[in-house]
């Protein structure tokens, strides 16, 4: 049984209004023993540079206080989800900002995610205006591969095929053309000791699979990958640990026997 949700968001993230206390209460109610808050830090987000940023001093002060107050009920870890970028004009300032942030603040867990490509988030329709479905997804995965190779000091690759949530209904994706770059991503993270997150957030958006898919998780295992984390990507208290039963069933059917949590950047393994 999965007793830890280590990808969640609170009101420190631009896209959530959930109080950290409400998220913790939900985690305790659901019987979790470990809980990690990983609010968004997307430096130089292209649409508005004030989006997806928080004050790290305020964040650590608040969450450290809550960690102490809730210590008899749940083990609260302090994390962050970094938005990685590959565009030439922003790579260096983004990378330098994250390096300084991670040197200064003792995060337990850091997720490296690709939210933006070609100076936009594929959530927005303009990303798809001049691209076929296959072209749009392939370009995103190429950015993901670059990011997994060139950024340091994060522990897992967040929601690897995130973009598939947002492919317009009138676009088709030839997944056979994605196989080589997905393999390259998986080989890269295995070589670099970076884990693979199984993100259940898409399941509550009527998407039929986790991010990444069961097929990608199976390929990760086939290539020798063993470091798996599970996160709900909850932005509301009612979504904490949502669909973890489905994630566990999928992972165990593929032969995975454990999942990981992180403390001070180091993995701790837990049997299903």
In short:
With 272 residues, this protein is of the alpha/beta class. It has seven helices and nine strands; from the N terminus they run E-H-E-H-E-H-E-H-E-H-E-H-E-H-E-E. Helix 4 packs parallel to helix 5.
Question: Biggest sheet, strands in spatial order?
Answer: 1-2-3-4-5-6-7
Classification by helices and strands: alpha/beta
What is the β-strand count? 9
Radius of gyration: 17 Å
Order of helices and strands: EHEHEHEHEHEHEHEE
Please estimate the helix content.
25-40%
Poorly predicted regions are none
Number of domains: 1
Q: CATH superfamily membership, which one?
A: Metal-dependent hydrolases
Specify the number of helices: 7
Calculate the terminal CA-CA distance, rounded to whole Å: 5 Å
Approximately how much beta-strand content do the residues carry? 15-25%
Shape summary: globular
Q: What's the architecture, going by CATH? A: Alpha-Beta Barrel
Q: Name the quaternary structure.
A: single chain
Average pLDDT rating: 96
CATH topology: TIM Barrel
Major sheet: size, sense and barrel closure? 7 strands, parallel
Fold topology:
Elements: E1 4-5, H1 20-29, E2 34-41, H2 56-69, E3 75-83, H3 91-104, E4 109-113, H4 133-150, E5 156-157, H5 179-192, E6 195-199, H6 214-222, E7 228-231, H7 244-253, E8 258-263, E9 266-271
Parallel strand pairs: 1-2, 2-3, 3-4, 4-5, 5-6, 6-7
Antiparallel strand pairs: 8-9
Helix pairs in contact: 4-5
């Amino acid at each position: 049984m999965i007793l830890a949700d280590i990808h969640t968001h609170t009101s420190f993230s631009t896209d959530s209004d959930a109080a950290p206390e409400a998220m913790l209460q939900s985690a305790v109610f659901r019987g979790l023993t470990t809980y990690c808050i990983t609010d968004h830090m997307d430096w130089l987000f292209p649409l508005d540079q004030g989006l997806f940023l928080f004050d790290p001093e305020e964040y650590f002060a608040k969450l450290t206080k809550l960690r102490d107050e809730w210590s008899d009920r749940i083990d609260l870890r302090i994390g962050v989800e970094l938005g990685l970028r590959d565009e030439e004009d922003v790579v260096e300032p983004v990378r330098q900002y994250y390096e300084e942030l991670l040197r200064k603040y003792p995060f337990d867990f850091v997720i490296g995610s690709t939210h933006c490509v070609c100076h936009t988030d594929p959530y927005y329709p303009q990303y798809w205006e001049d691209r076929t479905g296959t072209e749009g997804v392939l370009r995103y995965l190429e950015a993901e591969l670059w990011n997994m190779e060139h950024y340091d000091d994060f522990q897992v690759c967040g929601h690897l095929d995130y973009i598939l949530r947002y492919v317009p209904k009138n676009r088709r994706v030839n997944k056979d053309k994605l196989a080589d770059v997905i393999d390259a991503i998986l080989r890269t993270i295995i070589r670099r000791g970076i884990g693979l997150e199984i993100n259940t957030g898409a399941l509550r958006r009527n998407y039929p699979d986790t991010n990444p898919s069961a097929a990608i998780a199976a390929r990760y295992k086939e290539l020798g990958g063993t470091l798996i984390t599970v996160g709900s990507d909850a932005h509301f208290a009612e979504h904490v640990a949502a669909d973890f039963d489905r994630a566990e069933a999928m992972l165990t059917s593929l032969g995975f026997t454990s999942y990981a949590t992180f403390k001070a950047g180091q993995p701790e393994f837990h049997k299903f």
